[in-house]
């Protein structure tokens, strides 16, 4: 699975300055969060990456993907699971961050939704040092390729369901996911020849990306 982040993070070991700033603003050891997510979801992974990178403590709760989808609206797909994202914010949408001091939108909300807003909140609260994206056009063009749904959907939509994560523990999780994408007109899989070709292209883009991301422009 490809996960793209809007920000690139400076690692402690690469910058004495950042290392100094981080140790001066230690992560508040008393703050602990519950992070509600799907393990396969790029939006959730963006938040998890931030928390893992900076050593922010959290307990992860992973939901079945079909739980909370309403069968009456989904041609019979979906179910009301024990863990149901609707109980967090009223919406079937994750990630959601829960914890003391986490802002909520409505009085009944259990936590905060929207991955970028969660990241902004964490960056502000823990005074994290996160450099902005460079905006380099050569990186941007690779990014656009990697985000092109026409190319990526047939590579990933069916493969995602084979990742051994709790998201797909119930067969109804997979059938909801496939139904949802079929309904949108997404292509779920390539033919085996197309698949091999797409993997070849993707691998060469990833090699190019790795090489380019090592180039430091001043
Ligand atoms: N803008 C939201 C998007 C979150 C989102 O779309 N999450 C997907 C999972 S990757 C979701 O909850 N989908 C529920 C569904 O379609 O049933 C964010 O950045 O957090």
Structure in words:
With 218 residues, the protein is α+β, with helices and mostly antiparallel strands. The chain has 2 domains: 12-126, Glutaredoxin (3-Layer(aba) Sandwich), CATH 3.40.30; 137-213, no CATH class. Helix content is 43%, strand content 7%. The chain has 8 helices and 4 strands. The protein has a 4-stranded mixed β-sheet, covered by helices on one side. Helix 2 links the parallel strand 1 (33-37) and strand 2. Helix 2 (42-53) packs parallel to helix 4 and helix 5 runs antiparallel to helix 8. The two termini are 31 Å apart. This is GST N-terminal domain-containing protein.
Q: Which range does the strand content fall in?
A: 5-15%
Numbering strands along the chain, what is their spatial order in the largest sheet? 2-1-3-4
- CATH homology superfamily name of the largest domain: Glutaredoxin
Q: Characterize the main sheet.
A: 4 strands, mixed
Average predicted local confidence, pLDDT = 88
Secondary structure tally, helices = 8
**Helical percent range?**
40-55%
Set out the fold topology:
Layout: H1 16-24, E1 33-37, H2 42-53, E2 58-62, H3 86-89, E3 96-98, E4 112-113, H4 115-126, H5 137-146, H6 149-160, H7 171-183, H8 192-213
Parallel strand pairs: 1-2
Antiparallel strand pairs: 1-3, 3-4
Helix pairs in contact: 2-4, 5-8
The protein binds glutathione.
Residues 38, 41, 43, 69, 92-95, 114-116, 180 line the site of glutathione.
């Amino acid at each position: 699975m490809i996960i793209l982040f809007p920000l690139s993070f400076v690692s402690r070991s690469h910058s004495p300055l950042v290392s100094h700033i981080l140790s001066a603003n230690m992560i508040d050891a008393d703050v602990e969060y519950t992070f509600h997510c799907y393990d396969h979801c790029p939006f959730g992974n963006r938040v998890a990456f931030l928390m893992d990178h900076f050593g922010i403590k959290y307990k992860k709760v992973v939901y079945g993907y079909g739980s909370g989808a309403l069968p009456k609206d989904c041609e019979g797909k979906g179910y009301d699971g024990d863990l149901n994202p609707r109980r967090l914010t009223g919406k079937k949408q994750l990630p959601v961050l829960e914890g003391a001091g986490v802002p909520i939108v409505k009085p009944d909300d259990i936590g905060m939704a929207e991955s970028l807003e969660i990241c902004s909140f964490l960056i502000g609260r823990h005074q994290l040092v996160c450099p902005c994206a460079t905006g380099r056009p050569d990186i941007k063009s690779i990014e656009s390729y990697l985000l092109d749904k026409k190319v990526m959907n047939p590579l990933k939509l069916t493969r995602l369901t084979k990742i051994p994560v709790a998201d797909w523990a119930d067969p109804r999780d997979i059938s909801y996911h496939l139904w949802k994408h079929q309904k949108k007109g997404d292509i779920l899989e390539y033919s085996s020849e197309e698949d091999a070709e797409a993997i070849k292209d993707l691998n060469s883009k990833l090699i190019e990306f790795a090489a380019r991301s090592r180039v430091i422009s001043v």
